[in-house]
Design a protein that fits this description.
This protein has about 120 residues and is of the alpha+beta class. It contains 3 helices and 6 strands; from the N terminus they run ββαβββαβα.
Length: about 120
């Protein structure tokens, strides 16, 4: 997956459980419940996992359930909403190119399944 260049500067990732997925079709940002904060090496490993996601065939629903916000210690770099049903992501941020805004990913491959497992491990029981 193509990530903004600022992903190399990321120090903190907020994991977001999306509570109103339909709004993300046209929204200006990511909204949901923050369920985890990943810092340092864990944040870098997660972004590496995301960057390694291969593309996929696009389906149509875009009902994202999970997302991330990538930060430095002071600035928000970008946000990503993931739909594991239709294999689509939406990326927001000041340094996000048009090509990066809407992408596909293989949600059913090993990398996609590992990312979903990480997200689900943050969900409150």
């Amino acid at each position: 997956m193509l990530l903004p260049l600022t992903h190399h500067k990321t120090q903190v990732i907020e994991v977001v459980h999306i509570t109103d997925p339909i709004r993300h079709l046209t929204s200006a940002d990511l909204v949901g419940d923050e369920v985890a904060i990943w810092e340092g090496e864990r944040a870098r490993q997660t972004l590496s996992l995301i960057a390694d996601l291969p593309g996929s065939e696009l389906y149509r629903c875009f009902v994202p359930g999970w997302g991330i916000r990538a930060h430095s210690s002071t600035d928000l770099f970008f946000e990503i909403a993931f739909c594991f049903r239709c294999h689509r992501v939406r990326i927001w941020g000041p340094d996000v190119s048009v090509e990066q805004e809407g992408q596909t990913f293989d949600a059913e491959g090993p990398t996609g399944l590992e990312l979903l497992r990480l997200f689900r491990s943050c969900a409150p029981n």
